[in-house]
Amino acid sequence: MNNKTIDILDVLHLRGPNIWTYRPALEAWVDINDLEDFPSNTIPGFYERLTAFLPTLIEHHCGVGERGGFLMRLREGTWPGHIMEHVMIELQNLAGMQSGFGKARETCKRGVYKVVVRARHEEVSRAALVAARDLVMAAIEDKPFDVQGTVDHLRDILESVALGPSTAAIVEAAAERKIPSIRLSSGNLVQLGYGARQRRIWTAETDETSAIAETISRDKELTKTLLQSCGVPVPEGSIVDTANAAWEAAQDIGLPVVVKPLDGNHGRGVSINLNTEAEVRAAFELAEHESSDVIVERFVRGDEHRLLIVGGKLVAAARGEEAWITGDGKSTVMQLIESQLNSDPRRGSSEAHPLNLILTDPDDDPRPVLLQLERQGFTTESVPKDGERVLVQRNGNVSCDVTELVHPSVAKAAALAAEVVGLDIAGVDLVIEDIARPLSEQSGAIVEVNAGPGLNMHLKPADGEARPVGKAIVDHLFKEDENGRIPIVGVTGSNDTTLTARLVAWLLHLQGSYVGLACRDGLFFRQRQVHNRPSDNWERKRQVLLNRMVEAAVFENGAKTILSEGLAYDWCDVGIVTDIAEDDILPSFYVNDADQMSRVIRTQVDVVLPSGTAVLNADDARVADLAPLCDGNVLFFGTSAQSPVLAAYRAEGGNVVYLDGDEVVLVLGEEQTRIVLPEATLELKPVALLAAIAAAWALGISSDLIRAGLDTFMQPADHLAA
Ligand SMILES: Nc1ncnc2c1ncn2[C@@H]1O[C@H](COP(=O)(O)OP(=O)(O)O)[C@@H](O)[C@H]1O
Ligand SMILES: [Mg+2]
């Protein structure tokens, strides 16, 4: 009896650069059992069923390099591991999680494959993997499969785990500038950059957004008092605590007025253009429901606008539009709202929609709309006459880009408002008739200043051009020549990597940097051991990069960590490879010989920055062979000037470090420096010694300091040469 099933044996979440790709990926070990004898072309109807489930597979180029490439493979005959890879990619794409990268590779065990797919979010990819298996099996067994239901499910997971759109825009803009990011919470708190050079953002708030400023901005009355004292126009008003007081205040100010909560947001409980006692009283009830304190203020004529100020400059402006319906003599108000407003594809209840649904959004209070209708003599069930226009919503629809139109005096007033409140990033709500004319010529005023403003209206305006607001925020946090990176040194190889890492950390420490070190001896901050268990794993390395004190980081990367978790950093300044031993294998990962191990170790060389250096052992042929993979410089080290690789590289003008008796010779182009090794270091393993010296040299540490460092390095006893 054939066992035609697919078993998922194991799943690895590769969280950083790995043997397959620079990006996080999911690696599944899949056993296709006897399906090994049944490639796709031998299963009748399989091709038709699979492409009926997922017609968009036509877009997959696969290795063929053109549209339809994968389908060609499918016709010619390919195996379930490879098919699962493509199905998984497609399911992820359909769910809105873009994922181009995938690979399927046989292992040495018959029927067992490694299937790897880019995983922006682990949870989504894990679910997509299982779904891909089930879908492929359904196509094999000629059974139904609910593709739409599966995609919807994946999309739900994605929505629950993905960053919000504002935060995502900032993180993407950072990535454009090669600034790394680390998500710090399941919410929108993100670290941009590493260690001491990091900045934090939380939606559109930054570590520069003052808590006091944020609190001020939440109190609309206090905000107005501060703005007014600096000459920024605001509507006069007062705080009231009863409906009677509200009506009295309204008479003092002069009608029409606005009644709104002192500390509301999203327009909740705001009623504007109120002209009668009854309207003011009803509005008071609405506002009081949202907040204990209620403001009555002068009604400012004009359109509502949102101006985004970042670092004292205007970067985007949007105008709100009133929402109107036009009667046809037959339909009810509710039907007209549905057909003329809510049917607009820009409206929806998710964050990705620039406009909200009217009356049907579960998160929105329907009462302001009902009240607005009532004031015109309508309910949702009324039937307006043919051609009759009814105002449904006066505000809350800010999404029409007007950045180019803003008059400089208006931009200046908005920037001043942000400055007065003390916010580095602010959303300024301005009511004005014509944003293109000077403020002094009209009765415009700033009604509110918001901390952590939503960026969606600028990223996806319903009308007009999208604005690069994520970039503006990143540029505000990082000067042009900053990338949020600290020097990172990664060490890998079969032997001596711990000692190398410790010595490099010591030399960086002497240079004056606050060093974080994660290696097999433990986790160290500024030479203090904070963990004594092996810390060459992903989690510990991440701790180093999270630490705001850390000015330089040194990581030991064992082959097993690279295989099972990937690297904890995206790029490094120095990547050291000590050696690749003949007997260094990891059969439990299907790595059965040194050549395969070489493909694991190369990961360290792949991530060297173009401005960085790979420090490679010239005496080990497999290590030396990795040199061409490096985007940056290569520095060879060896135990003798005669080492062929080293000598040849030196002859070409390359940088080398080698041992000459009890001296280490550093050759940098024309320049040659010698360091006489202190007595104590002669006991150290030469490979580790040379690798560390070469790395320090590549990091720009002076030869004098290296010499002093060698003199004072207290090597742990187990690192001495045998
Ligand atoms: N005094 C006012 N005059 C005219 N319109 C106003 C006034 N106050 C508020 N609005 C309108 O109501 C909207 C919401 O008011 P706002 O004070 O910004 O409250 P929220 O915190 O809920 O956003 C504003 O964007 C503006 O369109
Ligand atoms: Mg507002």
Automatic annotation (TrEMBL):
One Pfam family this sequence matches: CPSase_L_D2
InterPro entries associated with the record: ATP-grasp, ATP_grasp_subdomain_1, CPAse_ATP-bd, Cya_phycin_syn, Cyanophycin_syn_N, Mur-like_cat_sf
PROSITE patterns, per the entry: ATP_GRASP
GO cellular component labels: cytoplasm
Highest taxon of the lineage: Bacteria
UniProt keyword terms in alphabetical order: ATP-binding, Nucleotide-binding
Biological process per Gene Ontology, one example term: SOS response
Domain ATP-grasp, first and last residues per copy: 224-478
GO molecular function, one term: ATP binding
The protein's name: Cyanophycin synthetase
Organism: Oxalicibacterium faecigallinarum
